[in-house]
User: Fold this.
Amino acid sequence: MISLMNTGNSAQNKIFLDRGDITRLDCDCIVNAANNSLLGGGGVDGAIHRAAGKKLLEECRTLHGCATGEAKITGGYNLKAKYVIHTVGPIYSGAASDAKMLADCYRNSLNLAKQYGIRSIAFPAISTGVYGYPAEQAAGIAVRTIHQWFDANADYGMEVILSCFNDVTYNLYKILLKDEMK
Assistant:
């Protein structure tokens, strides 16, 4: 894992970039790119449910789903992370509302994390898998939204880990974050 930048109005807010399996990260919370049911699925959603164990599914059943752009929290169970924040990204259609809903995923997840006293949170590349969001656009929205949240919460002290499952996503974030440092 590499730290590419300190950002926001405070050196306490940091972004890290990781290439690997989000389920193995040692942080307070990981974010699940879930579907509306919150009952598991493919990709990162399935991997998180498998790694956390059946108690995660049991707790998710009590949440009664989640609207696109919103976020809900559960325990982490068998994960190193104490919490899982579940957020539902938009299925990409090319409409302007897609970008707003994707930004809402990041913002609402960070707000929920702050509400629970979480200081380190790992995000996958939300909506870029089967939901078809173009990776470059999604990465730009993620980085901008995180910066905006850092600016609005400069004194909180949050470490955000952008967890990349593949080299393409990792290199995309690396370029975006290095450009921001200039």
The longest strand covers residues 14-19. The chain has a mean pLDDT of 93.
